[in-house]
Every structure is written in C-alpha cells, then in structure tokens.
Design a protein that fits this description.
- The chain is mainly beta.
Length: 218
C-alpha cells in the first residue's frame, strides 16, 4: 500500500490515508500509478509512506518512509523509493522484496486472461468494528487494446471488470506471472451509449524507460 502518515505536533493529531497500491520492480523500488502522487495534497506528498507485509506476522504491516523519485504522467506510471522503516522497533529484520518480472505489453491481445491485486477502499466497509483495507485479488479479460496513433505503441487497456478506488497502481499479471500493465482507474461516462464498469490499465513498457533513467542517476 502507498499513502501518507502525518503527525501534527501542535494539534497532537495523527492523520493517515491509503491512496493506492504499489509493487516491487527493483531493489528498494516500487511502481504505482502517477496520479496516486499527483492527487495528494502538498503536506501529504512530504510524508509519503508505504506499508509492506510483515514476514513474521502476516496479519500486520510495517510502515516505511518513502519518496516519489520519477514519474511518467502521460502513461500514468511512477517510481517510489523505499527508505528506512518509520519505526525501527517494528522492523528488527531486514525485509527483502522480490522484484516482479515484466512482460512486453506491446504483445498483449484482446481476450487475454489477466489478474490483478491491490487494496480497494471499498473493503473498509466490510468490518464496522475495525476500519481496515483488505488485500483483494481479481480476474479480468482484456476487453480492448488501444494504440497511440503516432507511435503505434499500446497506450491503454480496457479490462472487463471495475477497478475500485485504491486499486490504482496494482500490477496486472499474465498467466505466466509476468506484469503486463498497471491499473490506472476505471472508465466512467455519462453517455448511456458508452459502456461503463470497465477498468483501465496502462502498459508496463514505459516503466523500463523510467528505470533506465533512474539507474543513470545513481
């Protein structure tokens, strides 16, 4: 999960919020949707956190300080760097995240079976006693593959299932386990002639450019 955690000393108040999902693509680097960052308030952007499942207790998460380091707004993809744990007392072991493998999203086909997983906000209403977001997996079919008219590269995928708020940044898997795309949101229209309830995903290939550019800076 990716979001923010604020401590306002003058008000003795703690505020936190989950804004989307992220996944590992390289050591200490995560990917999410760029709009997850863009839609945050400035104060939230200065207090970015990611929550990683505790390997010693699968019912708890460890919160890490993090920062957005690069983004491609046109393709709605961003890179996040994980920094030190927010509370070192809760992370006495080194947590090693395994990078996921990337596919060639230009080879995607309509009708292809895919899967995605993330933390939709709608799951908070499932437990009135304890407000928490649950990890959810979903199955979908690639309904349509849209190409950029200039580059002829894949620019967006339509999925035949709704992607609730919080799924943004979720990895879209092929059956071979490789990542084809990143969930970008859902398609909404007030025109009754246009189908709704479709999920939107962005191709994974532009992420390679972000990773290459970042590697040149370190």
């Amino acid at each position: 999960m990716v979001g923010f955690y604020l401590i306002r000393q003058n008000q003795n108040q703690i505020t936190m919020g989950i804004r989307g999902t992220a996944f590992c693509v390289a050591p200490s680097l995560l990917t999410t949707a760029a709009h997850v960052y863009q839609q945050m308030q400035e104060e939230e952007k200065n207090n970015i956190k990611v929550w990683v499942l505790d390997p010693a207790d699968h019912l708890n998460y460890i919160m890490f300080n993090a920062q957005f380091i690069s983004q491609d707004q046109q393709n709605d993809i961003a890179l996040i760097k994980i920094l030190n744990p927010f509370d070192k007392n809760k992370a006495d072991k080194e947590i090693i995240l395994k990078p996921l493998l990337l596919s060639d999203s230009d080879n995607a086909m309509e009708g292809e079976e895919v899967f995605f997983c993330g933390f939709p906000e709608s799951t908070m209403s499932l437990s009135p006693e304890r407000q928490e977001i649950s990890f959810v997996s979903a199955h979908a079919i690639v309904s349509s593959v849209k190409q950029d008219t200039n580059t002829k590269k894949v620019s967006v995928f339509f999925l035949d299932t709704n992607c609730d708020k919080g799924f943004s940044g979720s990895p879209v898997f092929l059956r071979n386990g490789k990542i084809m795309a990143v969930v970008s949101g859902r398609f909404e229209s007030r025109d009754s002639r246009v189908p709704t309830g479709l999920g939107l995903a962005r191709p994974i290939n532009p992420l390679r450019t972000l990773l290459e550019n970042y590697s040149k800076t370190i």
